[in-house]
Specification:
Number of helices: 0
Radius of gyration: 21 Å
Helix content: under 10%
CATH class of the largest domain: Mainly Beta
Distance between the termini: 21 Å
Number of strands: 37
Strand content: over 45%
Length: about 425
Amino acid sequence: MKTIFTLFFLTSISLSIFGQWSVLTTFTGLFYVNDILFIDQNNGYLVGTDAVPNGKAIIKKTTNAGASWTTVYSLTPSVSPSTLMMSHINFVTSSVGYAVGGYTDLLKGIICKTTNGGNSWDTLPHNLNCSRFLSSYFFNTNNGFITGTYIFKTTNGGMSWSQVNSAIGAYGIRKITFINSSTGFAIGNNDNLLIKSTDGGNTWSEVTLPTTENTNDIFFIDQNTGFIGCNNGVILKTNNGGTSWTQVVNNDSDNYSILTIEFATDQIGFAGTLNGKILKTTDAGQTWNENYNMTDSPYIFFCNVNAIDFPTDNTGYAGGTTSYIAKTTNAGGNQSAIESIVELHLKIFPNPASDFVYFESIDGNYEKLIVNIKTIDGKILLSKVFQGDGILDIQNVKPGIYLTEIKTNNNRFTRKLIKI
């Protein structure tokens, strides 16, 4: 992710350490990562700020699975001293993406858009009164939301925006997400707040949470199962689409605040914390344990893990307030993500896939399978029933990230599918 102009230069090396993650020492100086997104196994993006020397807002891209990175967007503050940073990145297709951020101390948010796969970015003009936009969510290339002081909506690809909520929360809206075209959730920034929409984001109402801790991130595996990461190690889970929430078990004795949550499969998930820890669950988020600590590296003295992304079941990336990112190629070790489908006696390959997905019995004896290919918001694109080894034709599915839902009489399994 970059050409580096910093205090000093280090040749890129990889250092394998506890938890079967590797710290990539590509980044030097003071580059802070706020979000990570891979759109396939090789192509990914980091957004954040290059704190030295000018506090620039930065977007970086890799085309080789994180081995190297190139700066594709850089914006220097117009006022000195001041700091610009990018907060969040979201791709709608393999070509069209949005990134948001802004000043940390001035009323000037940034909205960027790419239409060529992130090779170049345009800064979109706007007249919204917001110092820094914090997150975005797009249903398609034209219709989406960004958050900051308020929630703002566009229906024309970011050419214009309208405010859709009144002042809710003391410090604005930190994250927004949707589980289908109608139902969405947003959490407060530096606040104990969850709000919900059931009309596609036009109106929002507050949901009571079983904790007084501030909310930091929200992530849904599917339309029913979701998680909220909070301060002081609190993780909340819903099994009914956000109607009710319960606190799950976090075995981290330090109770560091949960800053980000990401799932590689419906069973295996990860959470990034204050002070460098990555937690892992292997039971669909019921219990969480320390998997890795970025500060165990001799290169990292302090780090808040702000972002984690898994483009495949086993390969994941993590970054934060450090000049390094961490990578795993075996789902953090200890338990490979492929183990989560052993109980179905089934292998699914390849992933990513371009034309066909193969479903192959491990022992030649499994129940009838119902296979659904779904969009992230739950819309079924393809459905097929198998009574043995099968092949699913996805040639007419557009490139992107989807969910493969597999049902038997007794089980249900969901995993990511990347169509290239």
